[in-house]
Amino acid sequence: MTTQVEKSIVVDVPVSTVYNQWTQFEDFPRFMKGVERVTQLADDRLEWVAEIGGVRRRWEARILEQVPDRRIAWAAAEGATNAGAVSFQDAGNGRTAVALVLEYEPEGLVEKAGDALDVVEKQAEGDLRRFKEFIEDEGYATGAWRGSVDEGVPAGTPGVERAASSRGDDGGAGVSGKAVAAGVAAAGAAVAGVAAAAKRRDADRDADRDAGRDARGDTGEATGPVTAAAAPTATPVAPETPVPGPVPPITETDPALVDDAVAADVDVDPTTRHLGDGRSTGGAL
């Protein structure tokens, strides 16, 4: 299964300057996110090393057609299976329209997942935007190659069928005996990481469940230590001070000797033992 990406942008720089800058393939890492290195092996051959969608890939590309100020078309000769073309058109007033068409075959679980999320499409769009910013800020090209490659044999817009030699013996996209194995390792590491995280999550969930069962016991009630309620604090009371010496017994008074006036709480003079009206109390007080 192949995926095709088409993106375009208008650059506020004349077409010749824009084209000249694009021919400086080894400068691509300056504005193409994920591209680690581009090496020009010959006028019509390039070696790429890039990380796209979390997978590090290497491939060699063969330039099928290159016409100054107009277009550059390529196809992978080995490694990641891809092909495409970039065209340049004068948009007037010193501006240039740049159009990119790219077709590729995602390989492995990680690349296919990235393809479903349009990772390559978003990256291509971002690369064109960064190229525009780069050349507009500079105002001139960092170099130029004005040569041609098969100018008289139009390649059109090549698809992945032009990159058939990059497929492995089993027909898998981008699988080549000369390709760097880092892409496969990255994919395997990502899958292993997901599996390990899921395993740890399941183990933590089982441990929490076992801990809860141990705390409840067979009856389903908590068996942990029970903290007794704190006893109320007693306020100390000072002991009574004993009266020195023996306490004389209280002599019960004969009811017959009790004067009615005394019972009526009448005042008695303690010195004369007479009532307030002069009468004797008639008994000992």
Report on the architecture of this protein:
By secondary structure, the protein is of the alpha+beta class. Among the domains are: 3-144 and 157-166 and 175-180, Alpha-D-Glucose-1,6-Bisphosphate, Chain A, domain 4, CATH 3.30.530; 251-285, no CATH class. Helix content is 27%, strand content 25%. It is built from five helices and nine strands, in the order E-H-E-E-E-E-E-E-H-H-H-H-E-E. The strands form two sheets. A seven-stranded antiparallel β-sheet has the order 1-7-6-5-4-3-2. Helix 2 (108-116) packs across helix 4 (182-216). The longest helix has 35 residues, at 182-216. The radius of gyration is 52 Å and the shape is elongated. The model is unreliable at 169-192 and 219-229 (pLDDT under 50).
**Helix-strand string:** EHEEEEEEHHHHEE
Shape: elongated
Placed side by side, the strands forming the largest sheet appear as 1-7-6-5-4-3-2
Q: Strand portion, in percent?
A: 25-35%
Q: Kindly state the percentage of residues in helix.
A: 25-40%
By CATH, the superfamily of the domain at 3-144 and 157-166 and 175-180 comes out as: START domain
- Biggest sheet: strands, sense, closure? 7 strands, antiparallel
- Total E-strand runs: 9
* Sequence stretches where pLDDT stays below 50 over 5 or more residues: 169-192, 219-229
Average predicted confidence as pLDDT: 72
- Gross CATH architecture of the domain at 3-144 and 157-166 and 175-180: 2-Layer Sandwich
State the end-to-end distance.
Answer: 129 Å
- State the CATH topology of the domain at 3-144 and 157-166 and 175-180: Alpha-D-Glucose-1,6-Bisphosphate, Chain A, domain 4
CATH class of the domain at 3-144 and 157-166 and 175-180: Alpha Beta
Gyration radius, rounded:
52 Å
